Amino acid sequence: MGPVNIGVVGLGTVGAGTVQVLQKNGVEISRRAGREIRVTHAAVRNLESRRACSLEDIELTVDAMSLVHNQDIDVVLELMGGCEHAYDIVISALRQKKHVVTANKALIATKGNEIFDEASKQGLVVAFEAAVAGGIPIIKAIRESFSGNKIENVEGILNGTCNYILSEISDRGCDYDEVLAVAQDLGYAETDPYFDVEGIDAAHKLTILASIAYGTHLNFESIHVEGISNITHADISYARELGYRVKHLGIARRQNDALDLRVHPCLLASDQILANVCGVMNAVKVNGDAVGETLFYGAGAGAGPTASAVVADLVDVVRTLTSDPFNRVPHLAFQPSELSSFAVTPIEDTVTAQYLRLTVVDKPGVLGDVTKILGDEGVSIRAISQKERHMDASAVPVVIVTHQVREGSLNRAIAEIESLAISVAPIVRIRLEE
Amino acid sequence: MGPVNIGVVGLGTVGAGTVQVLQKNGVEISRRAGREIRVTHAAVRNLESRRACSLEDIELTVDAMSLVHNQDIDVVLELMGGCEHAYDIVISALRQKKHVVTANKALIATKGNEIFDEASKQGLVVAFEAAVAGGIPIIKAIRESFSGNKIENVEGILNGTCNYILSEISDRGCDYDEVLAVAQDLGYAETDPYFDVEGIDAAHKLTILASIAYGTHLNFESIHVEGISNITHADISYARELGYRVKHLGIARRQNDALDLRVHPCLLASDQILANVCGVMNAVKVNGDAVGETLFYGAGAGAGPTASAVVADLVDVVRTLTSDPFNRVPHLAFQPSELSSFAVTPIEDTVTAQYLRLTVVDKPGVLGDVTKILGDEGVSIRAISQKERHMDASAVPVVIVTHQVREGSLNRAIAEIESLAISVAPIVRIRLEE
Q1: Would an 8 Å CB–CB cutoff place B103 in contact with chain A?
Q2: Does the pLDDT at position B209 exceed 90?
Q3: What pLDDT score was predicted for residue A334?
Q4: Domain A4-134+303-336 adopts which CATH fold?
Q5: Which of A74-88, B162-176, B212-226, B336-350 is the least confident region?
Q6: Per the CB < 8 Å rule, is B148 touching A21?
Q7: How far is B48 from chain A (nearest CA, A)?
Q8: How confident is the model at residue A390 (pLDDT cuts 50, 70, 90)?
Q9: If you count residue pairs, one on A and one on B, with CB atoms under 8 Å apart, how many are there?
Q10: Does B331 score more than 70 pLDDT?
Q11: Which region, left, alpha or beta, applies to residue B386 given φ > 0 means left and ψ of -120 to 50 means alpha?
Q12: A327–B323 CB contact, under 8 Å
């Protein structure tokens, strides 16, 4: 059969990286796919910018829609990012009977339901492996390799920027702002780091993972999201003394007929594999009722790893180009008519152990007051330690690790302790994952 | 569409586990596959044996061939193990136009080339995810998710029995024979452990991984195989002192136009993730030129994990039942006409650092003799330590870690040292993986 012609929208880091992989490994890729795959057109914002790939035999345009309407193009790669324009491109490509491969997690998490409806109507594929955890093939693993399982929980380090910052605070003893500045210099964090450090990016990814794990529509709004900007070096080193590492996790867990869906910092026992995933690396743990515990580790971002996922999707699409549209792997793992609804557990009803750091005046009776309030709310204590007072401080930190507790009960106890005169700063709280 | 009818050959641990998963998770599985999947027939050796699954609605027979020839059966699951009879079953099933799913690593590693030829001729699928690393979806990851990559190396803990024994020797300080006896009691090792502990099972799996990673025919005979039966607690604890763990690995590595293919014990730096995979768990590290380093972790054996992989393959097969036979994922990742040949590097020409334990008489000048011989063969030393003599021993252990060295040169040095009068026992040698 003849070659498959590809149009790429966006030649930034991911777009140029993908073209480069297709050029460099073209022979191996065709040996696998059974057909030549060639990039014939690319849409860019600026025709004159320098690119990290060769532009030989590629026709450039600034008009992405012209590419979508080009009859010679078989598959569109949407690698521009952002939501509104990307949505128009993807929907138009589908209406022009073109399969789509995208790396756009925000687009899939927030507009995926509409996009997949259109794709199903047209009998086309929208592939999005690169949208979650970069080069780690976690979409395919959950969607195809665990199709015999009831998925119990999925949890992962889904944002390399957060993991880099937490790793550096831990290793170098600096605080958040200082490490963020270094991460920005190194290109590991954006100039505006909000989406990464406040957990939005991880929540986009968790939205997608939860949907394919549990066979439910995408529901970004239902996720409880916290970032890492209030994590201090002090908390990380106290946690370390207690045998824990602090990691920013996305967690999806089935509890009877409801789902826990949350993104926030966690303490992990230091001998867990997830606790030892450092720097910009990502990892995702999946538990299924048949397969047991599994873990997938790799680079979650960057030109090469993301391109690896985009090209894998592209080869899958090329293989399906002549096959029956109704017998492909469903976008959300389950057949569209078989998606179900789950209640999402309010964060107040979730049950976890928690680490608390109180800042209290250093005088007799304080610990008694605190433990009485916790006891009255049914919060039982696993470990407690009062730290030494720094020379110039009038208050001391008290670190507490609780047993499993309903978050709503703990919230009441925290509010009551914070209202006491002995409490001189808000209580810092980090959930444990066990 | 109507249900797909399955015939299962073998209802031992894996067969009964698979039927159990199909029964327990039937609703979720059909929601994914788009069709009901039901086991209608099973072939067993003994009709009266107790099974770990319900036999309701399943017709039992002792005649596996009758099942292969049954026109009502769409897919055959070969879960009986062994080679000769299994080969006849699989080939006959293909000739009867039935897709096949198998968990049989020995069969695929030694007869896969013939089996895939027959499947291609018939336009059918033979799926074998369960043959390597149990529930870890490593076949699909390499074959489909890394299709954009040149695979650089694949290395893994591929045999849970070996990993359990090495972990226990390390943790409990017992020696090989003692731990093996416990492993046999717990069902982690067979009564005849030869295939596991001598590396044959890992070599079967490495044969398959190398083939799909590099696009070459299956070639079990070319693999250099060593087991773990000569690893002692002393070596493991010396290695630990030097910052290493001892693991039994399968290694496939592309070196220019040749492949390193070897199965043997290795030292791994203790902060590597692979070094921290303990007990019966498996893990596989894959490096691709685009994706970088990835790692996959999970249970490598047992009813549930293996059933998870078998059912995933089955759902894939069900999805392809109506699609174009020439556009499926190729069995060995690359199109059959595109498989290539590689030279396999003779073990003498491989280059690694190595750990050596000498047993020598405790007298002046011995270290000088040893280091001179090593130096003459171009072996340079990274670390050396002479251990204290045990009260009742006339000889002392000397532990050496070399820099990278060609194995053939080291072999000559070892032979020369062993021929010296000061050397009172064979030298123990373990390669380092870095």
Answers
A1: no
A2: yes
A3: 55
A4: Rossmann fold (3.40.50)
A5: B336-350
A6: yes
A7: 26
A8: low
A9: 226
A10: no
A11: beta
A12: yes
| Interchain CB distance below 8 Å, A330 and B32 | yes
Task: Please list the residue range(s) of chain B that carry CATH number 3.30.360.10.
Answer: 138-299
Q: How many CB atoms lie within 10 A of CB B221?
A: 9
Of A407, A372, A367, nearest in space to A385 by CA: A367
Phi, psi (deg, nearest 5) at residue A370: -65, -50
Marked catalytic residue, from A105, A111, A140, A205: A205
What are the C-alpha distances in Å from A284 to residues A196, A209, B28, B427?
Answer: 17, 10, 22, 42
- Cite the residue boundaries of each domain of chain A with CATH code 3.40.50.720: 4-134+303-336
Cβ pair B141:A140 closer than 8 A? yes
The whole-number pLDDT of residue B330 equals 58
Q: What is the ipTM of this complex?
A: 0.83
> Mutating which of B101, B271, B308 best tests the A interface, going by the most A Cβ atoms within 10 A?
B308
Report the residue from A215, A320, A328 with minimal CB separation from B31. A215
Contact B390, B321 (CB under 8 A): no
B4-135+303-338 has which CATH code? 3.40.50.720
**H or E element at residue B155:** strand B151-157
Between B111-115, B169-173, B332-336, the lowest mean confidence (pLDDT) is in: B332-336
CB contact under 8 A, B294 and A31: no
According to DSSP H, which parts of B100-150 are helical? 105-122, 138-140
**Least confident segment among A339-348, A356-365, B73-82, B196-205:** A339-348
List where CATH 3.30.70.260 sits in chain B.
Answer: 348-433
Q: Which residues contact A274 (CB under 8 A, 6 or more apart)?
A: A155, A156, A157, A247, A249, A268, A283, A285, A295
Give the amino acid at A278: C
Q: How confident is the model over B359-398, as pLDDT tens digits?
A: 999 888 888 999 999 999 999 998 898 877 766 677 888 9
Q: Any CB–CB contact under 8 A between B28 and chain A? A: yes
Interface subset of A 259-298, CB within 8 angstroms of B: 273, 276, 288-298
Name the fold adopted by B348-433: Alpha-Beta Plaits (3.30.70)
Residue in A with minimal Cα distance to B328? A319
Instruction: Name the B residues in 182-221 with CB < 8 Å from any A CB.
Output: 215
What is each CA distance from A306 to A40, A230, B193, in whole angstroms?
20, 30, 43
Determine whether the interchain pair A308/B321 forms a contact, defined as Cβ–Cβ distance below 8 Å: no
Which chain B residues touch A334 with a CB distance below 8 Å? 28, 31-32
The chain A residue lying nearest B310, using CA atoms, is A148
Residue B417, burial from CB neighbour count under 10 angstroms (0-12, 13-18, 19+): buried
Query: Could you give the C-alpha distances from A251 to A86, A287, A301, B33, B164, in angstroms and in order?
Result: 28, 12, 20, 26, 30
B311 touches chain A (CB under 8 A): yes
Packing angle of the helix pair B303-320, B13-24 (nearest 10 deg): 60
Q: CA nearest B309 in A: which residue?
A: A145
A140 is catalytic: no
Instruction: Please state the pTM of the whole predicted model.
Output: 0.86
Nearest to A210 by CA among A158, A268, A135, A279: A158
Residues A249 and A156: beta-carbon distance below 8 Å: yes
Q: Is residue B231 within 8 Å of residue B199, measured between CB atoms? A: no
* Chain A residues close to B101, C-beta within 8 Å: none
What CATH number has the domain spanning B138-299?
3.30.360.10
- How open is the CA angle B161-B162-B164, to the nearest 5 degrees? 65
Q: What does the mean pLDDT of chain B come to? A: 89
Distance (Å, whole) CA A50 – CA A305: 21
Q: Would you tell me how many other CB atoms lie within 10 Å of the CB of residue A384?
A: 16
pLDDT for A342 equals 66
